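Appendix B, Record 12. Input sequence as logged:
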Amino acid sequence: MKTSPSPTCSKHEVPQLLAHRGAAEAATENGLQAFKYAIENGITGFETDFRLTADGEVVVMHDSDIKRTTTGSGLVEELTLAQIKSVKMKNSDEQVPTADELFSLFDNLEGFYLELEMKARYGVNYSPERMDVYLNKLYAAAQKHLTGCCVVFTCFDDAVLRRLKELHPDARIGLICGGLTQEIVTKTLALGCYSCAPTMAGTSQDLVDQLKQKGVMVNLWFSDTLELWHQARDMGADVSTCNHPVAVLNAIRESAK
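Logged structural output:
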């Protein structure tokens, strides 16, 4: 039986905080410990990143090169899963998790919101055939484990989003951008996006209102302080990505007392 996370966000905690790459304030980003810490401390939303290894496995990794967050080096797309698993994450005994390993944390949970950022781009490392492998495997992993969650597949590249919808019409997609522009609003609506994630900096209220009026979820990032979270809330954000989610959540709850 599925159980809800505890404690859950209350109606006074909107926009919902999305832990950016897990709670990286407490553990190495995109490692399982960072996600476990966030869940254990009341965070019910996540935004994180995925790439495809040389042998076709989806792993949780933001950078193209593993050197910043692990004891190894090399491009994810040019390394096998075994090579990536042979090194440790920095400041940790953890290994880089696969999408399946991360998503398994949510097998018995409901009510979470997850934005799965697709780092793949058409080009040198991603032929059309390889892109389809990546999209199909990420989608399948989400379908297997995240049945109790609201899942949105996000990307800066509309071509990737368009292809995912061709392969899996039921997938929720979201466009990520810098400051919101009228062109981005138009593109978001044309793609049939469930969400749009612009930076707060450079985003005007009227463009946020246009998206909201069309029923598009808005993620204004980053809300790394209570003050920035208030700004995102006042602009009408539904969710807001945060690099210090547990600290900000505690500050929100303390200020509400």
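Residues 1-8 have pLDDT under 50 and may be disordered.
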